[in-house]
């Protein structure tokens, strides 16, 4: 599948719609990540684009990193991988001085959770579910999840979600401030598009400067956190727990960390 097939891109007026399209669960691999980075770079250069809307095809936003790709590249440094993929992608989203909306149409897990949290606004279908995911395969949160998730829902809730890997429902996500709006699944596209159009009619230059101010005030250490996450992931990725977690995932059994 080519990059253009992995990430569907459609511009309607001043709105750019990006749809991750890697069935069945839109798992992120190197090619999809590369396509996302290119799309956000282009959005920054193109003055005709005033708002970006990111979603997933089918009934899943994204289940996160493709574990099969991880397994097939066991010698890959996790630090190097993050420095090539998710770290620059998160920074591109946060540094794009235009509104970015995540339309969350189903499961959001792992690195995809970090991508969704890096967006400015999140609208979720009632069926959406949020799973931190990393502990399930013996890893630590990356893709800025360690910074963005506690910032939105508090350290206690974030710790529970990360340690127990328990799903967060759309209703609970709205109550906790993880998402801005929840709508019936059939209305997600139209509601997200209407919201994006409203933003696109606004003072984009001023909104971009406001986003820059928010980054300075609340996420001033984002780049440092991403780098530290990569360091922690390098350690975790070399451990026996990660090996057991990945094997258990691929063998569809519960991991045994004892």
Outline the structure in words.
This protein is α/β, with parallel strands linked by helices. It has a single domain (3-185), classed as Alpha-Beta Complex (2-enoyl-CoA Hydratase, Chain A, domain 1), CATH 3.90.226. The protein contains 13 helices and 10 strands. The chain has helices spanning 3-6, 30-45, 67-72, 78-84, 86-95, 111-118, 145-153, 155-164, 170-176, 188-200, 204-218, 222-237, 240-250; strands spanning 7-12, 15-20, 51-56, 60-62, 100-104, 107-109, 121-125, 129-131, 168-169, 181-183. The strands form 2 sheets. The chain has a 6-stranded mixed β-sheet with strand order 1-2-3-5-7-10, sandwiched between helices. Strands 4-6-8-9 form a 4-stranded mixed β-sheet. Strand 1 (7-12) and strand 2 form a beta hairpin. Helix 2 runs parallel beside helix 5 (86-95) and helix 7 packs across helix 8. The longest helix has 16 residues, at 30-45. The termini are far apart.
Annotated CATH homologous superfamily: 2-enoyl-CoA Hydratase, Chain A, domain 1
- Major β-sheet strand ordering: 1-2-3-5-7-10
Shape: globular
CATH class: Alpha Beta
The biggest sheet, with number of strands, parallel, antiparallel or mixed sense and barrel status, is: 6 strands, mixed
Helix and strand element order: HEEHEEHHHEEHEEHHEHEHHHH
The whole-angstrom Rg is 17 Å
Helix coverage percent of residues? 40-55%
Q: Could you tell me the mean pLDDT?
A: 95
Number of domains: 1
Class computed from helices, strands and strand pairing: alpha/beta
Q: So how many helices?
A: 13
CATH topology tier name: 2-enoyl-CoA Hydratase, Chain A, domain 1
β-strand percent reads: 15-25%
Beta strand count = 10
The CATH architecture term is Alpha-Beta Complex
Distance between the termini: 40 Å
What ranges have pLDDT less than 50 throughout 5 or more consecutive residues? Answer: none
């Amino acid at each position: 599948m080519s990059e253009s097939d992995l990430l569907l891109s459609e511009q309607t007026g001043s709105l750019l719609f990006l749809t991750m399209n890697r069935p069945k669960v839109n798992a992120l691999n190197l090619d999809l990540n590369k396509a996302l980075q290119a799309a956000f770079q282009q959005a920054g250069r193109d003055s005709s684009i005033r708002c970006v809307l990111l979603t997933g095809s089918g009934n899943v936003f994204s289940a996160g990193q493709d574990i099969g790709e991880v397994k097939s590249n066991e010698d890959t440094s996790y630090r190097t991988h993050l420095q090539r993929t998710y770290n620059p992608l998160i920074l591109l989203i946060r540094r794009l001085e235009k509104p970015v909306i995540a339309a969350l149409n189903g499961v959001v897990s792992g690195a995809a959770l970090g991508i969704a949290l890096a967006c400015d606004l999140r609208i979720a279908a009632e069926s959406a579910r949020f799973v931190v995911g990393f502990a399930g395969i013996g890893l630590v949160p990356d893709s800025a999840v360690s910074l963005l998730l506690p910032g939105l829902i508090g350290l206690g809730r974030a710790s529970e979600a990360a340690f127990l890997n328990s799903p967060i429902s759309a209703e609970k996500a709205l109550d906790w401030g993880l998402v801005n709006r929840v709508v019936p699944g059939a209305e997600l596209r139209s509601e997200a598009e209407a919201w994006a159009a409203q933003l696109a009619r606004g003072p984009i230059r001023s909104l971009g400067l406001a986003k820059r101010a928010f980054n300075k005030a609340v996420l001033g250490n984002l780049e440092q956190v991403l780098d530290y996450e990569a360091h922690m992931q390098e350690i975790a990725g070399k451990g026996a727990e990660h090996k057991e977690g990945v094997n258990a995932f691929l063998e569809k059994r519960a991991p045994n960390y004892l």
